[in-house]
Amino acid sequence: MDENNEKYQQMLSTSLELFAKFGYKKTTVEDVATSINMTKGNLYFYVKNKKDLYEKTIDFALNQWKDFVNDAVNKEKDVVSKFRILAQKSIEYIENNRTVQTILINDPSIFTLSSTEDRFYNTNVSAMNIIKKILEQGIEEKMFFPVDVEHITEYLFSVYIMFLIKSYVKSDNSSLKKMFSEGLELTIRGLLLK
Amino acid sequence: MDENNEKYQQMLSTSLELFAKFGYKKTTVEDVATSINMTKGNLYFYVKNKKDLYEKTIDFALNQWKDFVNDAVNKEKDVVSKFRILAQKSIEYIENNRTVQTILINDPSIFTLSSTEDRFYNTNVSAMNIIKKILEQGIEEKMFFPVDVEHITEYLFSVYIMFLIKSYVKSDNSSLKKMFSEGLELTIRGLLLK
DNA sequence: CCATTGAACAAATCATTTAAATGTTCAGGA
DNA sequence: TCCTGAACATTTAAATGATTTGTTCAATGG
């Protein structure tokens, strides 16, 4: 089966909306199938089971997010700008995407803060690679302190996940934006040489 | 009722062990009462209900933790040493306390990353005050960059909670210590002037 | 008055059953 | 390769009653 199959993409896109609207339990495989004029039997040609459908759907959503950020970062040249754009666009995407917000609220375990039980490991690894490449560029260009790239990447990604949890999983927004920007400046000062 | 009442302290100490051993549901108020030669009716002289008993118990545990860290910090004079000791002792305490570890694993929501629904708000505020006082001293002594104290305090506390979640709520220990120390150095560089 | 008892009562939990809904498989066909 | 539809397997929901557990409170003694 071709991963770029149109029907397959349509299925993921539709099931994303349904899972967001009704949650995992209330969304039936029949709901998803009929929404795209498919029988539920046929849906099993594309996925192993309901859980697999769900995970492929979330993975699809996370990849869209990652691509959006990656494209924006690649438009910048200066390494500090890249870092700022990375932070800004990551937040901007979710702020403007009610569907993904709802998904995160319904299923906080998507961002589990634990890589060993991470169902979206591959996608998160490629998201972390965006950070990693910026750090490497910064160190290469003598702009950044020569940090331990692997561990600081993991650290920054975890801090980012923490913000997402505080913002969307819990709806704690009191002065969170200020905390985010102050934390960002602290981090940039910690990264910069001199 | 006196909060420093010996029977009351004994009750909290005993129920901490029982809640750690059996979890909230499997621990009955009668278990707690009989463990300290009390009838369950009498226990209601000290607490409103089972939930109240649980929260007073956790609060008791968190305060012991906080006091341990605070005492260690107050032995230092240099502001950077204070900051390092704060980080070190916070982790050391939980590393050596199997009981509190188990409590955290059984009830991840104790560290909720959300201050609005925080059942232990007062205790966490006084924990944050330890950070806040160090930041203020550092800025006063011209050692630290003049950061926004309120928001950076909240930021650092959240990062700390994130580490606790990664360490104890989830059992993800692969290179976590390295990540912690690298993140700590990054933060200290971000705090220091010059 | 403070701390305690024990019995009565209210509420939650558990085990079990049964019906309905939903998830999954698969032989066969376009 | 992609799809159908019916058969089958599994999960969920609701209902019931028994049992445990949580909570209240009048009475009691230090």
SSE inventory with pairings:
The structure is a homodimer of 194-residue chains.
Chain A: H1 6-26, H2 29-35, H3 40-46, H4 50-74, H5 79-95, H6 98-106, H7 121-140, H8 149-169, H9 176-191
The structure holds a DNA duplex (30 and 30 nucleotides).
| Count of spatially separate domains of chain A | 2
Largest sheet of chain A: none
Could you say which overall geometry of chain A the principal axes of the C-alpha atoms support?
elongated
Helical content class of chain A: over 70%
The CATH topology annotation of the largest domain in chain A reads as Tetracycline Repressor, domain 2
| DSSP strand content of chain A | under 5%
Helical segment count of chain A: 9
Overall strand count of chain A: 0
Measured on Cα atoms, how large is the radius of gyration of chain A?
19 Å
User: Based on the structure, what is the oligomeric state of the protein chains?
Assistant: homodimer
The secondary-structure class of chain A comes to mainly alpha
